Amino acid sequence: MMKRGWVTPVILGILALVIPFTLSSYYQHILILVIIWITMACAWNLLGGFAGQVSFGHALFFGLGAYGGGLLYHHWEISTWWGMIVGPVWAAVIAIPLGLITFRLRGPYFALSMLAMGEIARIIFTNWVPFSGGAVGVMISRTWGGEKLQYYFIILAICVVTLGVVALMRYSKLGFYFLSIREDQDAAEALGIPTTKYKMYALIPSAFFTGLAGAFYMNYMAYIEPRVVFNLEAVSIMMILTVMLGGAGTLWGPVLGATVYVILAEVFRTIPGIKEVHVLVFALIVVLIIMFLPDGILGEWDKIKRIFIKPKLAS
Amino acid sequence: MEFFFESLIEGLLLGGIYAVVAVGMTLIMGVMKIINLAHGAIMVVAMYICYALFVTLGLNPYIGIFVAMPALFGIGYLLQRYSIRRVTEVITVLPETQVLLTLAIGMALIEIMRFIFTSNYQTVPVPGVSGKTLYLGEISMNVPMIIGFVVAIGLIMGLHLFITRTDLGKSIRATAQDPDAAKYMGVNTRNVTCLTFAIGSMLAAAGACLLLPAYYLFPDVGHAFTLKAFIVTILGGMGSTVGALSGGLVLGVAESLGASYWQMGYKDVIGFVIFILVLLFLPGGLKTVIGR
Q1: Which of A249, A274, A286 sits opposite B93 (nearest CB)?
Q2: What ipTM goes with this model?
Q3: Backbone phi and psi for residue B285, each to the nearest 5 degrees, phi listed first
Q4: Beta strand A223-224 pairing with B133-136
Q5: pLDDT bracket for residue A2 (50, 70, 90)
């Protein structure tokens, strides 16, 4: 198993580099959405899946990332591409005081206090019109017009870096600290792990990469408004559900979950007459997955395999 | 000064209805030790049941409440028995898996309502009640809210009697205090948790139907209600009826005064700030202050 560990990423990488050239603009768009969601899901998984700190407010970082560039353009007409630096850094910096406040709480209380933070940010960005432009949002003109390939390779690079950083952290000493905090915070503390510090080490990159995805979203969609980027249901909760579907605390779970979610959304969007059914279908799938495979598809892979392949007797 | 008292009374009336919703949530939290994030979605389902009865049969929501409450009692029972309980008995990677399951269930319920009734704003005007105001000197009061408040307080008192005086109420409290010990004493804890979830859902349904004549109805309102119920639960202190009542009144008044003297748009921020402050500095909630 260890020897073949590199095969899947290499095949996926080659496919990711070659496939977009053969696709039409519409499918390139879907591929870009898939990769944005993979980036977000992986970023969430770093904090939620590995360190066990389930955050219900990651739309906060996504929105801050998006508004990093948005505000630059809104106030000084500076290119939103600078937002790719400003946005994630801003999100990561704001994550520090938020973490100091919310990490005092545990489990569901942490989750819901993050949710409160995200909602407060949404309300501020909606109502503080001189600062953010209010509910109308920010609109820019796209750098490359209708062309998709440039955007595709930028987000692909972001996604690969995110996955790489998450994988590096997971298999370093840091990752084992995260797991110990997730499994038993008191035991971790007793073993001399400063838990708040290490939770912070998970939160900051998580906020950074979520913000980076947000900043890219700003440049790609060319239009943001608080209701969209700080959305509780469509961003914060969806990030969690995609990870839960694929498997929290696994490296490739978020990739699978995000892919399923975006493809499902697009498939249902093409069927005329029904609106927003994809959310319903996706929510039902997640309910069933949590009921029967509580650790997600990849988290319970062994269990799934056992259903189809009869286990051999130990020799 | 009239303006102040008007806001205050408006807040108190709203707070009473928040309280009945939160009592349901606090009961579930106290017994099952999980946060039910489907609470607001359950309210939305109840509201749409009333709405459907109103549109098809012309049934007054104050009568519809007698359909919605048993219906949600049943739905709550089935949800706990066949879905949530499965996950409470296994060990998973994330300790919050049950909470995430209720979240997904809530989302599914809201989306089912959206699928059937679309996202449009609906109103359920009750002839002779909706839009009417009552004057107490210079102070005006909204009639549907007064009715809602009175019924809500009645329900909370009824629940309090049920919890403290009946055998089933005692089993519920025993399960909340120590599930294992309750089991040894012959309490069917599995059934008790199902019933608790059902009663909590029923109270949420009651609160939802009481709000209906005074408010707009659309599917996404569910998330806002879940958060409000949760804020009140934390503010009041988990598992306490009196706490939930006082928490509901405090949140209602704070929101109402905030909307009057600050800005309408920032009204919800007050609730969230209260929530975070209470969690950090008064983790036991108002319950601990009142108890002294």
Answers
A1: A249
A2: 0.83
A3: 80, -175
A4: unpaired
A5: very low
Q: Where are the alpha helices (DSSP H) in B96-240?
A: 97-117, 143-165, 167-177, 179-184, 189-211, 221-236
Report whether A201 contacts A174 (CB < 8 A).
Answer: yes
| Number of Cβ atoms within 10 Å of the Cβ of A304 | 12
Q: Which of A48, A123, A291 sits opposite B266 (nearest CB)?
A: A123
- Residue A134 is classified by DSSP as G
B105 in contact with chain A, both atoms CB, cutoff 8 A: yes
Of B34, B100, B280, the CB nearest to A290: B100
Given the structure tokens 């028995």, which residue do they identify? B81
* pLDDT exceeds cutoff 50 at A221: yes
CATH number of the CATH domain containing B14: 1.10.3470
pLDDT at B291: 61
Does the CB of B262 have a partner CB in chain A at under 8 Å? Answer: no
Retrieve residue B188's tokens: 């069917």
pTM comes to: 0.87
How far apart, in whole angstroms, are the C-alpha atoms of residue A95 and residue A90? 8
Q: A231 CA to chain B: closest CA distance, Å?
A: 11
| A18-308 classified as CATH 1.10.3470 | yes
Length of chain B: 292
CB B280: neighbour CB atoms within 10 A?
A: 14
Q: Which domain holds residue B192?
A: 2-291
Measured between beta carbons, the chain A residues lying within 8 angstroms of B108 are: 280, 283-284, 287
CA distance A163 to chain B (A): 20
Q: Tell me the Cα Rg of chain A.
A: 20
For residue A224, the SS3 value is strand
For chain B, 292 residues long, the average pLDDT of each consecutive 10-residue run is 81 89 88 85 91 86 87 91 81 80 90 86 76 73 84 90 89 88 87 91 90 84 86 82 87 86 79 86 77 56
In chain A, domain spans = 18-308
Looking at the structure of chain B, the number of domains it has is 1
| Contact present, A47 and A53 (Cβ < 8 Å) | yes
Q: A139 pairs with which residues across the strands?
A: A223
Is residue B113 classed as helix, strand or coil in its secondary structure? helix
Task: Write the CB contacts of B26 (distance below 8 Å, at least 6 apart in sequence).
Answer: B233, B236, B238, B239, B240, B241, B243, B244
Contact A177, A58 (CB under 8 A): no
Long-range pairs of A128-137 with CB within 8 A, sequence gap ≥ 24: A131/A71, A132/A67, A132/A70, A132/A71, A132/A74, A132/A226, A133/A70, A133/A74, A134/A226, A135/A225, A135/A226, A135/A227, A136/A225, A137/A70, A137/A223, A137/A224, A137/A225, A137/A226, A137/A228
Which residue carries 């609906």 as its tokens?
Answer: B122
Closest-approach residue (CA) in chain B for A120: B269
Element (H, E) at A290: helix A277-292
Look at A104-113, A304-313, B208-217 and tell me which has the smallest mean pLDDT.
Answer: A304-313
CA B154, distance to chain mean position in Å, is 15
What token pair was written down for B93? 């990677």
